[in-house]
Amino acid sequence: MTKRFTAAAAAVLFVAGIGVGYGAKLRPTPATYQNKAPADAGKALLELALVQSGKNGSWERIGAGRVYYLGGMKAEGQAVFDAILNGKHEDSDVYRIARVYAEAGEWDKAKPLFDRFLAANPEDAKGLAEVGAYYMLHGDRATAENMFARALELESDDPWMSEHMAGAYLGVRPQE
Fold first, then answer.
1. Residues 109, 153: contact at Cβ < 8 Å?
2. What is the mean pLDDT of the chain?
3. Is residue 99 domain-shared with residue 139, that is, in the same domain?
4. Pair (61, 2) in one structural domain
5. Which alpha helices (H) appear in the chain, and where do they start and end?
6. Whether residues 157 and 77 fall in one domain
């Protein structure tokens, strides 16, 4: 999947007249976005971001996937997420992708990934507090309060956890 993104980005840069020498680092320039429609400028920059992220930059690739997904190019964002989740990845990648779905208002997609993360990381107090907040925001107070209690058993002196929990009761999403 990354090879396709690399090839697409290289083709876009070549056609745009930027010209990329063999082995040269791909970098955005004003020609990448100037005088282009916003969607075209954004897409060109995202293609570069994926190339810049390389094979091992899952956090960075998730960041690009997030912008695709939330920027109205869901299929492209989903392709990035699928490539990461279908390959070797860290539990934190699952969590970050779940956050994107939650930010997009797609709880049905976020919830199973959050649950998967917590099953693999049952001692992650901050994760329990944040995911519990999402449960609360989606009307499942019992599950949320259970997660909050488990989180506090593990760590009770973290202001971010307290803020996630407070926000949930007040209708405020967790801040990343």
1. no
2. 87
3. yes
4. yes
5. 2-15, 30-33, 38-53, 58-70, 74-85, 91-103, 107-120, 125-137, 141-154, 159-170
6. no
Residue 139 in tokens: 């009307």
SS3 assignment, position 173? coil
Q: Within this chain, do residues 48 and 125 fall inside the same structural domain, yes or no? A: no
- Model confidence at 62: pLDDT above 90: yes
Domain count, the chain: 2
Query: Does residue 80 sit in the same domain as residue 159?
Result: no
Q: Among 89, 111, 145, where does a domain finish?
A: 89
Domain that holds residue 135: 92-176
Question: Residues 93-111, buried b or exposed e (16+ Cβ, 10 A)?
Answer: bbbbbbbbbbeeeebebbb
Chain segment 88-110, per-residue pLDDT in tens: 999 999 999 999 999 999 999 99
Q: What is the pLDDT of residue 74?
A: 96
Average confidence (pLDDT) over 104-131? 97
The CATH number assigned to the domain holding 147 equals 1.25.40.10
Whole-number pLDDT of residue 55: 67
Burial 135-171 (b: 16+ CB within 10 A, else e): bbbbebeeebbebbebbbebeeeeeebebbbebbeee
**What is residue 15's predicted lDDT score, i.e. its pLDDT?**
36
* Cβ neighbour number for residue 50 with a 10 Å cutoff: 27
